[in-house]
Amino acid sequence: AALGDSYSSGEGAGNYYRETDDNHGSTRWAACRRSRNAWPRKMTLPGMSGSTGSLSDTYNASVELGFFACSGAFNWEVQGSGFPRSWTERDHYEYGEGEFREISQVNSGVLDENTTLVTLSIGGNDAGFALAMTDCGGLSNCANDDNFLTKYKGKIDATQPDIRTTIRAIKAKAPNAQIVLMGYPELLSRTVKCGGSWYYDGTEADALAVLANYMAQKENDSVTMLKGEGIKVDFANPIPAFVGHAGCDDPEWINKIVLGPNGDGDFHSGDNSSPFCLWEILGGACLSRESFHPKDAGTSGYAQVIQGRLREINYQGG
């Protein structure tokens, strides 16, 4: 089962399933943006003759992939501890962010006692990563703000109990599964400045990288705590593999600023006021959801990271 947020759904890699990228501007808006190019579909598990996506698509008896990650997801939406405001405030379709009209991920039916592996990326939205990018993308330099790192490190700290609750909820539904929490990469090059990174300078890229590494440290600490509770969980850190491949690097694995809309599930100019349409530039065009997400090459890099981690922990499947 592949659960979590946009970094698992394949946001940024294109080729989204239509039913997850549809009906913009209505209460039926669907924008989980699950991509055929997502890394959970690209990974090849031990003993398998091909990727999970290709084998699952052809109904191969060796693998069944429950792919339910959703762009914009928060921990509570994975857990099922609430529901989006758009379900009751029908005039505000944009408040469906992170779950839209779908059932919660834990309760979606992709987890049971036969599940052997659950991959998950979660916590970036709870910790305000998008807001941190906004703070650094303005005219002032966020690296010169003494409160910037303190503020977002505090958000990362506050997110950890929710991440642990999410993993415990997964464990309750899939008691025999190996769970792997996947981290987040550094988004912008620390050494190369290019046009697509517009308002971000080197010191700001450094500050954002500090937050990515702090998140990795804290997520690893959470996993260690959960192991102490007897949960079969591990952490995979993509940061080393993505060094030299961030936005502006060559070869580049992560999108920089991308203008939308790219698909019906993307943000559109004239959208209802929403905290998720973070900037409006160039005559009111919203930034695409694809901004600062792995492109197709990046999801291939992620697949290599998870495959390497599964080898390290000697995962053998069912």
Sequence-ordered SSE layout with sheet pairings:
Elements: E1 2-4, H1 6-9, H2 39-42, H3 52-57, H4 75-79, E2 117-121, H5 129-136, H6 148-173, E3 178-182, H7 202-228, E4 233-236, H8 239-242, E5 280-281, E6 285-286, H9 296-312
What structural class should be given to the helix and strand makeup? alpha/beta
| H/E series | EHHHHEHHEHEHEEH
| Cα-to-Cα separation, first versus last residue | 13 Å
Number of helices: 9
Main sheet strand line-up: 1-2-3-4
Which percent bin holds the helix content? Answer: 25-40%
> How many DSSP-defined strands?
6
Low-confidence stretches: none
Gyration radius from CA atoms, angstroms: 19 Å
The biggest sheet, with number of strands, parallel, antiparallel or mixed sense and barrel status, is: 4 strands, parallel
Rough outline: globular
Mean pLDDT: 93
Strand content: 5-15%
Q: How would you portray this structure in words?
A:
With 318 residues, the protein is an alpha/beta fold. The chain has nine helices and six strands. The protein has helices at 6-9, 39-42, 52-57, 75-79, 129-136, 148-173, 202-228, 239-242, 296-312, and strands at residues 2-4, 117-121, 178-182, 233-236, 280-281, 285-286. Strands 1-2-3-4 form a four-stranded parallel sheet. Helix 6 (148-173) packs parallel to helix 7. The longest helix is centred in the C-terminal third of the chain and has 27 residues, at 202-228. The radius of gyration is 19 Å and the shape is globular. The model has no long low-confidence stretch (mean pLDDT 93).
